[in-house]
Amino acid sequence: MKWAFVVCAMVALSECLVQVPLEKGKTAREFLEEQGRWEEYRLKYPYNPMAKFDERFAVGSESMTNDADLAYYGIISIGTPPQSFKVIFDTGSSNLWVPSIYCSSAACNNHDKFNPGSSSTYRNNGNPLRIQYGTGSMTGFLGYDTVTVGGLPVTNQIFGLSQTEAPFMQYMRADGILGLAYPHLSASGATPVFDNMMREGLVNQDLFSVYLSPNSQQGSVVTFGGIDPNHYYGSISWIPLSNELYWQITVDSVTVNGQVVACNGGCQAIVDTGTSLIVGPQSSISNINSAVGASLQNGDYVVNCNNIYQVPDVTFNIHGQQFTIPGSAYIHHSQYYGCRTGFGNGGDNLWILGDVFIRQYYAIFNRSQNMVGLAQAR
Q1: Cis (ω within 30 of 0) for the bond into 81?
Q2: Which of 29, 173, 213, 305 has the fewest beta carbons under 10 Å from its own?
Q3: What b/e string do you get for 174-210 counting C-beta neighbours within 10 Å, with b at 16 or more?
Q4: Cβ(87)–Cβ(174) under 8 Å?
Q5: How far is 366 from 96, CA to CA, in rounded Å?
Q6: Rounded to whole angstroms, what are the CA distances from 291 to 71, 139, 284, 285, 339?
Q7: pLDDT in tens, 24-70
Q8: Helix (H) / strand (E) containing 142
């Protein structure tokens, strides 16, 4: 499998983009729908997308959630010789962790597991790691090894090795998580992978960018150290961060047909590749879904599949610019559960601009200037 590549400009070999392709696999929800078990799963493990952004878990443990709709993952390797893992590149967390051979949970049995005894460069740290999920937890310990991302060997990278994992993880394609948020969020003081990339001078620029292909299984990519003009058109809108813990920005309002339906007077939102939906406060999400003609059924906001080409656009007004999400981008057609929107209920105040948003807008995460760049995705 070819799982990493480097793109260089003709004008200078130094202008290289280190890229990790992302595959769009079957989601846990799709797998469970095929098995006829989605309703059982949904009720047993209710979706809590805001759990990972609870400030009580910001330091000391990493908070995640059971997002059954996550689809994008890439391949990294750990150790010498390399052991490969599928990971979600998550801008909403900061730790790297993978299953280990010491894990006996059902979630580990159908995933690749790291064997520290097979790596000549592994060093034990010994400190425990606990990751709090919305419906359970992952426990494990920390170690050091060479982590190779996009062909870049990051030496002495600290990472988590799981010993137990929440049951719902067994339905996810990815083995683990590679966090790309700020180091202050990292559990147990572990230095994030991208921070070590910057410190070791492995990237030309202190930024990375994400392109999520809207229609195909392939073509999605994370680019480290640069911006790939092949994945967007028009100008880049640079938005300053309002909080340098997550990739958090200020949204001015959300409109449908020119009318403000949510976020009146401004609200805070996190640009998060580790969340599948656009998530907001329940009353705001209800207003948006009502404005596009959706109704709540069995936990999902759904529309008549015969009307999906007539639903209105939803526009996020950010830093003086309009970022519009058409119906074709925010409605997902399931052969089992009809047509549901990509707007989900979350916490009291914070919003998450997840994959539904990022599929429309090439996202650039700039650590040197603490900004997010957004441009229309190709």
Answers
A1: yes
A2: 305
A3: bbbbbbbbbeebbbbebbbbbbbbbeeebbebebbbb
A4: yes
A5: 20
A6: 27, 42, 11, 10, 16
A7: 766 666 656 666 766 666 666 666 665 666 544 333 334 444 455 56
A8: strand 136-149
Global model pTM greater than 0.85:
yes
For residue 356, the surrounding DSSP H or E stretch is: helix 355-358
Local structure of 196: helix, strand or coil: helix
The answer to whether 93 and 179 have CB atoms below 8 angstroms apart is yes
202-215 confidence digits (pLDDT tens): 999 999 999 998 76
CB atoms within 10 A of CB 335: 8
Task: Compute the half-sphere exposure of residue 108: CA atoms within 13 Å on the CB side of its CA.
Answer: 20
Q: Which residues are catalytic?
A: 90, 272
Q: What is the pairing mode between strands 220-224 and 16-24?
A: antiparallel
SS (H, E, C) 23-89: EECCCHHHHHHHHCCHHHHHHHCCCCCCHHHCHHHCCCCEECCCCCCCCEEEEEEECCCCEEEEEEE
